[in-house]
Amino acid sequence: MSELPESRDRRFATTLARGLSVLRAFRASDDGLGNAEISERTGIPKSTVSRLTFTLQSLGYLTHARRQDRYRPGPALLALGNVAQASISFVDLSGPIMQRLADETATLSLLLVRDGSRLLIVKTWRPRGVSSLWLEAGHRLPLKGTSSGHTLLAAMPEDLFKETVVNAAGDRGLTVEGAAEARRDAYAQLITKGYSITPPDQYFTANIHAVSKPFQSRDLAEPVVFTCGAMPNDLTVERMEAQVGPRLNEAIKELERIMGQPPSITIRD
Predict the structure, then answer these.
(1) Which end of the chain is more exposed for a tag (fewer CB within 10 A), N or C?
(2) What is the mean pLDDT for each group of 10 consecutive residues in the chain (269 residues)?
(3) Crossing angle, helix 75-87 and helix 89-105, to 10 degrees?
């Protein structure tokens, strides 16, 4: 992760943004992080990271109770996460639906949100009794060359799309023209089929195949993405088209019915 760019808006608090960037550096599989590792992941100078981690520890958002040289998420961060999850109702409601989908399709099911110029995995549902992809909560994916990224671009309102693409320009070669083309292609698939698949020859890695569908919750100002993924040998394009994509489409429709919401993607004027 690179350091967050400073906003031209005078209201933008750069120190706060850097502190939040430190918190976002942690992943579920980490056995704590030192200042040097946090600096490497965020792009923030180590001297600045040291001041930020000291402050965050003092406030309870980080702790290093077990090993003095490595920080871990603290109790204040856990409480904040619980409040956030409780206030965003679709997260809990989607759990049984997505776990059933993961089990039925033998794929790793994911919930992703936009995190600056990339996507952040915030929930995973692993198929029971089947080995699955190593992706985990806290992992970030590029917008370019992923079914999740192209789907999110397609689901965004025009103003958010333009802002996001400007901020992400250059990440893995992303251009405004390329993002617009990916948005058009994914949107056409969502309207005609209910799900989106980025062609494997455009994918950012050859080790993953994935199919995605957006969801627009009343609790959030922008869409999120649900995705099913697996290794290419286990999840061919044919299987995505014939089985996994349609099942993902039905799963999100079920969530929309439970939430009493209209379809997240409709035909634009």
Answers:
(1) C
(2) 54 90 86 93 94 94 77 87 78 96 96 92 91 81 96 96 91 93 97 96 91 94 96 95 98 96 84
(3) 90
